[in-house]
Amino acid sequence: MRIDHLLVEATQRLARAGSSSPRLDAEILLGHALAQSRTWLYTWSDREVEDLDRQCFESLLVMREAGQPVAYLIGEREFWGLPLQVARSTLIPRPDTESLVEAALDKATAEQGRMLDLGTGTGAIALAFASERPGWQVVGVDRVPDAVRLARRNGERLGLANASFVESDWFAALEGERFDLVVSNPPYLAPDDPHLAQGDVRFEPASALIADDQGLADLHYLCLTAREHLLPHGWLALEHGMTQDGAVRDVLQRAAYRDVQTRLDLGGRPRVTLACMMP
């Protein structure tokens, strides 16, 4: 079957399966099966697809029809313009998290400094920041060994020598270390959050998604413990759910941070709250 005909059929199947972007999904999966770009698919749309390649595409298509994330199927996701390897041991980087990177960069005005990314996963936040601030030393930590190895591979592939990754349960392996900037996209979904049964989230690791106390437990913990690892006038930046900004600001203010402020994500929803550590 020709490429263009195969894409039409695949798009129809994925639309029936409930994909929110059936044509895009079909193009990405077929490009992966053929080891070609989406542009190549359009340029050579009248080419016949060989049987082995078609079987590979069919396998990917069936898994996508079952709801499995495209990023897991092809093993890659772009974030901040960086191609990152992904794995089922980590969350899939999302565009809204780029708001956290933007907030961190806004506070990183010095030529040099130290930045810490807690729960780094693929290394997306740490590597995006490192790519924009080559004079900064960036450290990403995660308690999952597979995630740490993945983040290291991503850093090596991108050639970002100013980023390093360490296995650590939050600050456990960082005793005595202090940073100019601490950021995190921690678990912030409540155990009964309906989003856990929807879309890609169904296939992502629950430990990276769910927190006790209506999703606020890890956010509260980081607000209180980050003080011990921030330099004077250092900044803490946390991603959170769109209804959690008030609770996060309240904890930060009670913990004697200053300049507490919330930023909106790409959809105009409260997504990142920042606070300054005063001496």
UniProtKB/TrEMBL annotation:
Top-level division of the source organism's lineage: Bacteria
State the name under which the record lists this protein: Release factor glutamine methyltransferase
Tell me the keywords, alphabetical order.
Methyltransferase, S-adenosyl-L-methionine, Transferase
Q: Which Pfam families match?
A: MTS (PF05175), PrmC_N (PF17827)
Q: What is its EC number?
A: 2.1.1.297
**Gene name as annotated:** prmC
User: Mind listing the GO biological process terms from this record?
Assistant: methylation
Species: Modicisalibacter xianhensis
Residues binding S-adenosyl-L-methionine: G119, T120, G121, T122, G123, D142, W170, N185
Q: What class of enzyme is it?
A: transferase
Function (record text): Methylates the class 1 translation termination release factors RF1/PrfA and RF2/PrfB on the glutamine residue of the universally conserved GGQ motif.
